[in-house]
Design brief:
Length: 388
């Protein structure tokens, strides 16, 4: 929970035991894995406890993913004051610090990923990236990277009075509901402690699992990876390779079927006027990044192969990649031409518009054909590759 920091630029923070965090995290974890099962074994679970857990886990989890992460840390959309307040209130309930601190460290994570200035640097090990950085290091926070957040009085109030916000949202609210409904102990064990632990480790999996396991779909040079299971546990934050490559996009799961309730919530809130200016990267930029990553993953695998095979495959790869790039570029320019005409011509069945649409479809088909050949080529290589 509370992490304190000292200035130590360009170097790994000194080893240090943060007793306050250690007691809080170990205590909540142990009560969750020992106390909660004993309580359930003895008393069973009543619908109230399940509903309280589901509501609070969803509200605090979404406040972190939609609010702390995509709204405040990355400014991927704009929000109405109601959404801002709920993000700050339920975000505080996650006991992951004030958004001012969280966003500062998260911006550093993106800027300095995989280096010693990354607060949860995976190069220092899985455990360190998961929770060790909170328990055993004394970090620097340079708040100059969150000057934009400083303008918002509510954000600064949450930062200055963080404990008040966190205890009210995370402890007093569930306990009041529990006392009112006659399930005080269940509310404490399941709605407070169990839920805090669940949301903590869900968030921490993004820093550990998603920088260790999964697929480097969009960038092979950083440790961030896409992992569908973490997406399931974290309201869609597991598509971490995409997120590190395009942090300004309000989506993390970019395909329509990707499990990303956070992007659906932001989109739905936009429909009722509570969010606006949702940022999306062009699908052509996304495809281009994906193709570069695929090409570079072949190149990386080839480094371990015999020279003759490597040289021949690299030559072939280069030719196919250029074909793919040209086909993508061609498709994109036809889409641009069609979009321009569409905005200029009022009669949508106009022959000019129809022929532009025909060119878009032909260019798309050509790209998909070249892409199929590219996948086939990768599939036939004696390398452990999987292009999807
Ligand atoms: Zn990351
Ligand atoms: Zn991020």
């Amino acid at each position: 929970m509370i992490v304190t920091y000292t200035k130590m630029e360009n170097s790994r923070p000194p080893l240090y035991i943060n007793w306050r965090n250690l007691v809080f995290f170990a205590g909540t974890f142990l009560v969750s894995v020992i106390g909660v099962p004993i309580y359930i074994y003895r008393n069973g679970l009543v619908p109230f406890e399940i509903a309280l857990f589901a509501f609070l886990a969803t509200a605090t989890g979404m406040a972190i993913t939609v609010g702390y992460h995509r709204l405040f840390a990355h400014r991927t959309f704009k929000a109405n004051p109601v959404v801002i307040f709920l993000s700050l209130f339920f975000g505080a309930a996650a006991f992951e610090e004030s958004v001012f601190q969280w966003a500062s460290q998260h911006r550093d994570h993106h800027r300095y990923v995989d280096t010693e200035r990354d607060p949860y640097n995976i190069k220092q090990g899985f455990f360190y990236a998961h929770i060790g950085w909170i328990l055993f290091r004394n970090h620097t926070i340079d708040y100059r990277n969150v000057k934009d957040l400083e303008q918002n009085k509510l954000i600064m109030h949450q930062h200055r009075h963080y404990i008040l916000w966190a205890v009210t949202a995370s402890v007093l609210l569930p306990l009041a509901i529990g006392a009112f409904s006659g399930h005080l102990l269940g509310a404490f064990l399941i709605g407070v402690v169990g839920r805090i632990t669940f949301v903590h480790h869900g968030t921490f999996f993004i820093n550990s699992v998603c920088h260790y396991f999964g697929k480097s779909t969009y960038d092979v040079h950083v440790s961030a990876k896409d992992h569908w299971l973490v997406a399931l546990l974290t309201n869609g934050e597991g598509y971490h390779s995409f997120h590190h490559r395009f942090p300004s996009d309000y989506r993390n799961g970019v395909r329509w079927y990707h499990w990303d309730p956070s992007k659906w919530a932001i989109w739905l809130l936009a429909r009722i006027g509570l969010t606006r200016d949702l940022k999306r990267v062009s699908k052509f930029h996304i495809l281009a990044a994906r193709l570069v990553a695929e090409k570079e993953s072949v190149e990386l695998h080839l480094e371990r192969e015999p020279h003759a095979f490597r040289a021949m495959t690299l030559e072939n790869l280069k030719v196919r990649y250029e074909q793919l790039k040209t086909a993508l570029h061609n498709w994109e320019s036809h889409v641009r031409e069609y979009t321009q005409l569409y905005s200029e011509i009022s009669n949508k069945s106009d022959a000019l518009l129809q022929s532009a649409l025909h060119r878009v479809r032909a260019a798309q088909e050509q790209f998909l054909n070249v892409r199929d050949q590219w996948r086939q080529f990768a599939h036939e290589l004696p390398l452990p590759l999987s292009f999807s």
